Predict the 3D structure of the following.
Amino acid sequence: MTQTTLPPTKKTEPVSSPRGGISDRSRAERKLGWMLAGPAFAVMLLVTAYPIVQAVYYSLFNYRLTDPENREFIGLGNYGVILSDPLWWQAVWVTVLITIVTVVVELILGFGLALVMSKALASLRPILRAAILIPYAVITVVSAFSWQFAFNITTGFVNSWLSWLPGIGSDTDWFGDRWTSLLVICLAEIWKTTPFISLLLLAGLAQVPDVLQEAAQVDGATWWQRMWKVTIPNMKAAIMVALLFRTLDAFRIFDSIFVMTAGANGTESVSFLAYRQTISRVEIGLGSAVSVLLFLAVVFIAFGFIKGFKIDLAQARGEK
Amino acid sequence: MSRREKTWWWIAGVVILLYCLFPIAWIISLSFKGPADIANQQFLPTELTGENYSTILTGNASDLFLPALRNSFGICLIATFISCILSMFAAYAIARLDFPGKKLILSAALGVAIFPVISIVTPLFNLWRQIGLYDTWLGLIIPYLSLTLPISIWTMSAFFREIPWEMEQAAQVDGATTWQAFRKVIVPLAAPGVFTTAIIAFFIAWNDFAYGISLTSTSAARPVPAALGLFSGASQFVDPTGNIAAAAVIVTIPVVVLVLIFQRRIVAGLTNGAVKG
């Protein structure tokens, strides 16, 4: 079956472009464009590019805030310390694990949600849409607290609700063990961010032409075949965008871990490690080096996605 | 649709509702539990009490919670306002003008959007201490722009592209002045997009935690999520669980209200920005 995608939505062309053949005019337009967009661009660069350059610089020093006199240049020494420290590799491993587990589950769950939303009875749809926005809009810290209190050994109801399961009783300490802590962290993340994925997928589902679905049905394709041969190939762009954004987001996990375990029992993520070095231990040099490594990891993932899966964001936006 | 099929869709719908609302219901229930009920290991309190709310709103913990609430509202509203103004101009240029660098601006916005917040916390922490922005409103408003600007630019330019700009000229042909054409034709068409973008930007600023805990140290600028994360209770002898739950419910109210009123627009904004940009 050929993969036929919807013809991209026709965008309103910039009104002035047909008349923009004259060079004076286009020069003026160019100038106006930069005058209007320049401030936003400059602010974005100032608040991100400048600090990251600063971080690269600090990362080359042995620099502790409480001991500024002894600041000394040590080249790549900090990176050597970090990369040879098992603590760093444990944080990387935890972060990668959380990212993979949450993104895979969210994608499947989000797809299911999107399917129900797209088929739901008209009377139910506005209610579902409002409900689905709530986990998205709730503050991450609030969601983390809610899940933490639910599983907490003293305040939680989960132990008494699940006491019929073998191995779970009123003294089950979910946050006393590494794997169960990670499980609850993942649950909280999944709950909070699945709605966002499902909304993106829902928008993708809406782009699958009905004609193709009907044609496949007439040809006798089963529901499963239609799903894999028609629906999914046609919404590949939406899936990829959702995947990219969520993976990068999951990799930066910080809030939930801070609230739920504060990094105890080997649940520290890379972001949390960077935070702890800088803010709690005021090791500016070491913390900066962790920050730079985190930044490089995110850039690496983004490029990997865009090159590896050939995500064309322009195409996903329907520009081509 | 057959009756049976209909029933299944209803069941699926109810499951989704439960899924979305359950953790919220739990934290609300928890916030109404008294000290005796907090550890009862049940979902519901045996007795409803408003104690937790009075502690954080008027009681011992109010000097921790109320300033944080004020900081959150103030900082988030100002940051949202600034980023909406800046991205309005940028989005107008991207949607309407033909200039090289358009792509550069959109890519830069994307780059900033995927930027790990923690990476810039370290240098900002150090810089802010040197120039006196540490623990001030401005010291949070500036980094919040890095959170809100990219998504505002993307969302707003997606909305602006769909505006039939020719109508401005049409109005002028019909005898309207430039100002009238702008005021009466373009503003009403552009307003929903700007408004939706503002809501989404506000959500993002309101959600911030990393900047909030790293760049503040007192109630002078500490926003609610950070105050919640570091909340240790009215006194060290009282379990703060109930108070945290009550505070969590209060900060959830504004976002739930916004969601209920503007759900259709928020969905359009979120999907436009990401999928259609």
